[in-house]
Amino acid sequence: xxxxxxxxxxxxxxxxxxxxxxxxxxxxxxxxxxxxxxxxxxxxxxxxxxxxxxxxxxxxxxxxxxxxxxxxxxxxxxxxxxxxxxxxxxxxxxxxxxxxxxxxxxxxxxxxxxxxxxxxxxxxxxxxxxxxxxxxxxxxxxxxxxxxxxxxxxxxxxxxxxxxxxxxxxxxxxxxxxxxxxxxxxxxxxxxxxxxxxxxxxxxxxxxxxxxxxxxxxxxxxxxxxxxxxxxxxxxxxxxxxxxxxxxxxxxxxx
Length: 255
Fold this sequence. Notes:
Blueprint: E1 6-9, E2 16-17, E3 20-21, H1 25-34, E4 39-42, H2 50-59, E5 69-70, H3 72-83, E6 87-90, H4 96-101, E7 113-116, H5 125-136, E8 140-143, E9 149-152, E10 155-158, H6 161-171, E11 176-177, H7 183-193, E12 200-204, H8 207-216, E13 220-224, H9 231-236, E14 243-245
Parallel strand pairs: 1-4, 1-12, 4-5, 6-7, 7-8, 8-11, 12-13, 13-14
Antiparallel strand pairs: 2-3, 9-10
Helix pairs in contact: 5-6
């Protein structure tokens, strides 16, 4: 491996699973910061606003500030605000706050874009049908993320990817993905970290989104055996991590 000067770390499945911190994760972050290692946190979670994500992490004991976190909703809101676009959101929780804070007009009346994230139980026929009609009428389709699954407290859960694919199939339009593994998302995170990609390692539990995406951007990829990690996917994906570790607790040992 090349020398690592800083880390991008996924959250769900890496620092915590469900509502529980991964054993040793909090201490690992303290150790890395004690060694002067810059950190940024990049999550494809789209059920919470960035401030809610930060609050949840602090409640678990993680020494993480809001400005250190990048989510797809923050990235999308910044892009839409720059272009003065209106939006219809297919999301849940308080993810809408990031768009409202950026001054985005959220509307069902001929929106410029349809933004789809992990809407959980809000994914109904009626909601998807409404989104489909908006896209056919001219709205752009933006995917906050395209993950297939994520690891919930009681097992694997459907993420936004399958629903994005359904809307693409129904409308014949391709979604623009703003979260991992998009180059723009990783580039924004690297700017915040202040280190060239060659000196950064991405730590994640998704072999394709985290590891493959990071490697295509010039970073190294460290896969953890927590969260939604699956041995069969590691063997069959075609992506070769630069390193596989048992959990984020092992990170301070590799510097």
